Amino acid sequence: MQAVHFGAGNIGRGFIGKLLYDAGYQTCFIDVNQDMIDRLNEEKKYRVIYAEEEGRVFEVGNVSGIHSLTEPEKVVDAIVNADIITTAVGTNILPVIAKIIARGLDKRYQQHDRPVNIIACENAIGGTTLLKQALLEETAAENHDRLLSLTGFPNAAVDRIVPNQQQENPLDVMVEPFFEWVTEEPKIIAEKPAIDGMNYVTNLEAYIERKLFTVNTGHAVTAYLGYMESKQTIKEALEDRQIYEKVMAVLQETGKLICRKYHFHENDHQEYIAKIISRFTNPFIVDEVTRVARTPIKKLGYNERFISPARQLLEQDIFPKALVYGIFAVLHYNYENDPEAVSLQAKLQADGIKKTLSEVSGLTIDSPIVTAVEKLFQETR
Fold this sequence. Notes:
One of its GO terms (biological process) is mannitol catabolic process. The protein is α/β, with parallel strands linked by helices. The protein has two domains: 2-202, 3-Layer(aba) Sandwich (Rossmann fold); 205-380, N-(1-d-carboxylethyl)-l-norvaline Dehydrogenase, domain 2 (Orthogonal Bundle). It is 52% helix and 14% strand. It has helices at 10-22, 34-43, 72-80, 94-111, 127-138, 144-150, 204-228, 234-238, 241-262, 266-280, 289-292, 296-299, 307-315, 321-330, 339-351, 353-361, 368-380; strands spanning 2-6, 26-31, 45-50, 57-61, 63-67, 84-87, 116-120, 151-152, 156-159, 173-175, 180-184, 198-201. The strands form three sheets. The protein has a six-stranded parallel β-sheet with strand order 5-2-1-6-7-8, sandwiched between helices. A three-stranded mixed β-sheet has the order 4-3-10, covered by helices on one side. The longest helix is centred in the middle third of the chain and has 25 residues, at 204-228. 44% of the residues are buried. The mean pLDDT is 97.
């Protein structure tokens, strides 16, 4: 079986690539990192190392690579013969890779009518839907029906912590043992991919929001609070009792929303939160706060990990006090090596708190959330 995976980064190799190999796929990684592509083609294997006391090591073989900019025709041909197509590139890159995927699918369906599923494994709600929309824009209108009838576009929720790292062999990657890959079963076309560790569900939104508002919100708020207190790592931040309590307050707010909205059992969700915190404090993972806190403007988006749960709580007449403090912490993030942090600070200086937060978050300037954040700034001056 042939898999085409866009994104040969740590998540692509350490998470998706390993599960594809375990399921019996030969995986072709598509990327723009020439060194990574050359190494994949030379070595045809790499190691996945678990961040744990036992330090288990797994070999991932049957891999190759194609540079999408210098060898586009090879990418097209790989798509023609693929049994599954996956991505882990970041949502902002999905419209970019849609061009070459559209070309590949067009050639594929000219040659045969074998269906294929495309699964975007991104840190976002509706990643595959976003890619599908971009593909339709890149596909001639008269071929839309063919594309939609032969291509499955299931959304997915993925979760695995992969810290910044330097391995002796750049192909090798260290990951936490825990992972979750949940896929939307109703949108699968033809046979379900038999991938051990991929869970199929009918209501994916519940699992995506549970993950986004617990793992992503919790991770990010820990990073921003830790940065404010000059902590270097996520583990170090959570060892500070005041930061820990603030993080837990945020997760209790998001947990209340998730349990009300999707009817998760409250005790089960508390166990889920405890599991997440234990993952954040894994002693074998050195996860720098500046890695987790990067791209603060993106993280303040309308449908993202802070603003979305905060506004949904407001709609239920619950004021998100802890989340508001988290947003306040994001706006303090001034790490000079993060271009978005630099841009955000410049905007705050030029336009002030209310206008800046309104513009980056999509909230109205008179939103109670915006007003409350500004008040926190006034109180702490």
